[in-house]
Design brief:
The protein is α+β, with helices and mostly antiparallel strands. It contains four helices and seven strands.
Length: about 150
């Protein structure tokens, strides 16, 4: 039985999304590497309601927003990533979200052109990549940390 499903983001999801965007642990490897301010979170939320290549995921059981997964444009490159509300960590949802998003994205995007960066300190995402069969492509750095680029395995 499925635990999560892709869903539209609606206004009533705002508090759950802010719970994610303003959590210092969830944001440790994302965006500015800090919790977003209310104003930043409002802009992010509005942009995400229009997003076509990053998806909101909900719990089948509670209908709550679990997190997001998909592709965004980052520094003029397609970047794949996911992030999950802390209350849903450790439930095996990240690989499910990635598989579902990749399946949907592969229908319209050449995934070989998509970058997946995982920081060296991000052991949780390294475990997810391993579970999904993703291989390290090369060592990489961004403005915040060092890590690796991974190949998406479809």
């Amino acid at each position: 039985m499925d635990k999560i499903f892709i869903s539209q983001l609606v206004d009533s999801d705002r508090s759950a999304v802010f719970d994610l965007l303003q959590n210092e642990h969830a944001m440790r490897f994302l965006g500015p590497r800090r919790p977003l301010t209310d104003a930043e979170a409002e802009v992010w939320f509005a942009d995400e309601q229009q997003a076509e290549t990053r998806f909101a995921f909900r719990s089948v059981e509670t209908n709550e927003i679990v997190g997001f997964c998909g592709i965004t444009l980052l520094d003029d490159e397609l970047d794949f990533g996911y992030f999950i509300r802390q209350k849903f960590w450790g439930q095996g949802l990240a690989p499910l979200m990635c598989k579902s998003a990749i399946f949907k994205l592969a229908q319209s995007i050449d995934l070989t052109q998509v970058k997946v960066f995982i920081a060296s300190d991000n052991t949780g995402s390294q475990k997810v990549a391993y579970k999904l069969g993703w291989q390290i492509k090369c060592v990489a750095e961004n403005e915040f940390e060092s890590g690796h680029f991974y190949h998406i395995h479809t």
